[in-house]
Task: inverse folding
């Protein structure tokens, strides 16, 4: 009897060890384009190799991570960050204020990371605290310190010129081997300050082709596959061994309007375009999910910014026609509208990503019903940047992520301030907007957010079309698997077999 | 032999200069701003902005006159310095060494596999020209050649990875990950090779020396081994050298489908992100490899047919 129990114990222990020893294989679309955090920091931040001073919890709230506490002076110009104690990097060295300061003061971080958007005066180590001094008030600073480009690495990660050569972080996993640009193998960090990861070994493989990711997770070659195409998700949902998780993410596909162009400087014309777009139809036919039809700039998951009190964007072709008539655009023999012998012709630039190319052609067909001729140019996304720069863009269909800095104010400050930005407004100079943004930047009342969203809805400097979703397929055997809509963390340390 | 070697060395030098210049010109001729493309390759769409593109332009000296940029790159080439990738910052030679290693491994297996498939089919159909088997061989050949590699690759994954779970569908960890991409390349390659072998074998079978060997009473096996294979090999070798072009072309598609970390995928990415040193380095190495393959084929051909030696002497 005793022998029997002994063998059972041995067998179960061996089984448990085998299961724990099994490598968790993740496939995603993102390549490791380099070692610099501003380039590929998201891979190391998502896989919990490296951590930032701040992070985001599962409700989207910015909370301390490597920072224990963050305090701001009364004038809003000095931020003191107390660091968590007893935090060690994967090479055994300790986290301290000097290391954090040297990380954040690197030239590449100051010029290429999100910190370049912050009015920084200095970053210094004082009494083992990190002190950030600003030239002007900037309330969303904590959210900027959660961005992947500000991950904190050991001093042994850099060469003598301050260039990142290795990723030695403080996270739940450390790098076992890395093969730029396609794969990284991780093993758990036994000395993680925040507990212990459940799965020992993890591998991440960049597989740019969506079809290949689908086939890999279907065959069992991958345990988790990120960014599955909606068309593939349909078949994967029927697979009894797989779980398909669909999460709405704070990303909106929208029309970027050059508010100085001869036609689009007219608000009624912008509204007519908006009313002519059948968003539900596009969402249903092209994205296979009708709920992705945009009703305003921010999807419902963006707490504090999704405004239910404003009039939602709708599809009303008759109202669109009436607005065009009011502006003097009459229907010609060819079905398109003319004014003073000029055809209502607008050029739309877009690129083949997130179905934008298909959405553009759908919008072209829908605007035709109102008599607007849309000339669609499908190129590369860098064309949007260049055409914004030389002011030749008329209308662009783009996709904007509001969670890169996990406080949408960061994105709005960049996109809708004076002069606009590549992925935001163009030649839309609205004093009320600048005033509201400035007030919020200085830590003003949160109800200003409602005024901003209302203004965006009424003025339409960008016209929201559809929201986005993230489809992730995982093996059913995995427990505690969570998909972060902010895409900052894969929460790998919580996953169990 | 000396003449062959010196000819190929001159060819390699001319090729290096030509490839370097053409790549540089073509990259300059592409529409769009180079600095913006590089910034996009480095930082991705969401982080791309005008200020980032401008800082990249200053950092890499892309604001300097084009002629100056060209002379700088030529100087690097002459000093055998392929430079650093503009995207990852990695040494181009290091990146190519790793990626090319994977691709050579893959193409070598594909090449051998294609010969294993093509030789028996080609020899058999050549010896039985215009028979039903020959027509079936032609059908097999046309069918395989007509299917694009990306379709063939997905069909193989669906059958061998999804349906029968025999092989991993993509990625690279060990030899088993090499089989499907190699098979995809090999099937496309063998479709044409088998027909060339068939033609060559058919010619040999019609030749007087082959008939004479038959009248002498030699068995089929001995005839093919002693007279068939060797005489058939010379034109086939020349053809196979040309096929290396197909392999280089094919790996680009196949590596993308199978997420294989080879040079084909790296080249496509480098082109998209305007990583000029990476493109120049990769194309140069591929070009030199092609010269090397031809040199190797020349030497083998001379060994197989000593008459070529006297011609080249």
Result:
């Amino acid at each position: 009897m005793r022998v029997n129990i002994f063998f059972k114990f041995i067998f179960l222990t061996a089984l448990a060890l085998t299961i724990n020893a099994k490598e968790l294989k993740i496939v995603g679309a993102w390549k490791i384009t380099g070692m610099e955090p501003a380039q590929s920091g998201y891979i190391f931040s998502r896989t919990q190799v490296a951590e930032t001073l701040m992070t985001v919890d599962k409700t989207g709230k910015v909370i301390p991570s490597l920072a224990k506490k963050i305090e701001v002076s009364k004038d809003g110009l000095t931020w003191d960050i107390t660091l968590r104690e007893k935090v060690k990097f994967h090479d055994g060295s300790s986290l301290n204020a000097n290391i954090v300061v040297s990380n954040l003061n690197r030239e590449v971080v100051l010029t290429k990371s999100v910190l370049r958007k912050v009015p920084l005066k200095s970053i210094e180590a004082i009494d083992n605290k990190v002190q950030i001094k600003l030239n002007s008030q900037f309330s969303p600073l904590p959210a900027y310190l959660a961005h992947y480009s500000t991950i904190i690495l050991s001093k042994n990660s850099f060469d003598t010129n301050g260039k990142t050569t290795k990723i030695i972080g403080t996270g739940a996993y450390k790098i076992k081997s890395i093969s730029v640009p396609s794969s990284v193998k991780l093993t758990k960090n036994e000395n993680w300050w925040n507990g212990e990861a459940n799965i020992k070994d993890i591998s991440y493989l960049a597989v740019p082709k969506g079809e290949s990711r689908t086939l890999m997770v279907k065959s069992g070659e991958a345990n988790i596959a990120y960014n599955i195409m909606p068309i593939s998700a349909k078949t994967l949902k029927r697979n009894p061994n797989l779980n398909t998780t669909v999460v709405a993410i704070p990303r909106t596909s929208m029309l970027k309007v050059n508010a100085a162009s001869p036609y689009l400087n007219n608000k009624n014309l912008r509204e007519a375009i908006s009313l002519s777009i059948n968003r539900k139809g596009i969402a249903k036919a092209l994205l296979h999910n009708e709920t992705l039809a945009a009703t305003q700039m921010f999807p419902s998951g963006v707490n504090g910014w999704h405004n239910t009190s404003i009039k939602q964007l709708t599809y009303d072709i008759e109202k669109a026609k009436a607005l065009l008539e009011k502006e003097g655009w009459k229907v010609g023999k060819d079905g398109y509208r003319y004014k003073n012998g000029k055809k209502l012709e607008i050029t739309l630039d877009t690129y083949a990503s997130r179905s934008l190319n298909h959405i553009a052609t759908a919008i072209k067909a829908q605007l035709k019903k109102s008599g607007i001729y849309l000339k669609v140019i499908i190129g590369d996304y860098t064309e949007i940047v260049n055409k914004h720069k030389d002011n030749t863009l008329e209308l662009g269909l783009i996709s904007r992520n509001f969670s890169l800095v996990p406080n949408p104010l960061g994105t709005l400050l960049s996109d809708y301030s004076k002069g606009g930005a590549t992925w935001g407004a163009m030649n839309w100079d609205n004093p009320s907007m600048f005033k509201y943004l400035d007030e919020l930047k200085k830590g003003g009342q949160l109800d200003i957010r409602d005024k901003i969203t209302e203004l965006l809805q009424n003025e339409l400097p960008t016209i929201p079309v559809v929201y986005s979703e993230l489809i992730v397929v995982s093996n059913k055997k995995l427990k505690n698997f969570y998909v972060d809509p902010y895409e900052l963390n894969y929460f790998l340390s919580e996953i169990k077999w | 032999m000396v003449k062959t070697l010196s000819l190929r060395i001159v060819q390699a030098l001319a090729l290096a200069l030509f490839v370097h210049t053409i790549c540089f010109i073509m990259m300059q001729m592409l529409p769009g701003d180079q600095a913006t493309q590089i910034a996009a390759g480095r930082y991705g769409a969401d982080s791309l902005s005008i200020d980032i593109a401008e800082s990249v332009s200053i950092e890499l000296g892309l604001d300097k006159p084009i002629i100056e940029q060209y002379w700088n790159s030529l100087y690097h080439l002459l000093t055998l310095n392929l430079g650093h990738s503009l995207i990852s910052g990695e040494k181009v030679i290091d990146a190519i060494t790793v990626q090319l290693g994977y691709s050579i491994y893959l193409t070598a297996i594909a090449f051998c596999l294609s010969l294993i498939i093509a030789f028996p089919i080609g020899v058999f159909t050549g010896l039985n020209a215009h028979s039903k088997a020959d027509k079936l061989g032609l059908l097999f050949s046309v069918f395989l050649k007509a299917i694009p590699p990306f379709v063939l690759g997905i069909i193989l994954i669906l059958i061998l990875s999804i349906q029968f779970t025999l092989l991993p569908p993509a990625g690279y960890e060990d030899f088993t990950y090499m089989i499907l991409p190699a098979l995809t390349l090999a099937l496309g390659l063998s479709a044409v090779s088998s027909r060339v072998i068939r033609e060559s074998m058919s010619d040999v079978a019609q030749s007087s020396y082959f008939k004479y060997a038959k009248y002498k009473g030699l068995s089929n096996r001995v005839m093919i081994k002693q007279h068939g294979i060797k005489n058939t090999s010379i034109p086939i070798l020349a053809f196979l050298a040309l096929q290396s072009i197909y392999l280089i072309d094919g790996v680009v598609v196949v590596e993308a489908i199978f997420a294989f970390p080879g040079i084909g995928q790296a080249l496509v990415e480098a082109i998209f992100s305007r990583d000029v040193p990476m493109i120049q380095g990769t194309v140069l190495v591929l070009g030199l490899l092609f010269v090397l393959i031809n040199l190797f084929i020349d030497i083998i051909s001379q060994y197989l047919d000593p008459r070529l030696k006297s011609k080249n002497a």
Remarks:
- Chain B touches chain A at residues 32-33, 36-37, 40-53, 55, 87-90, 95, 98, 154, 157-158, 161-162, 165, 168-171, 256-259, 261, 266, 269 (CB under 8 Å).
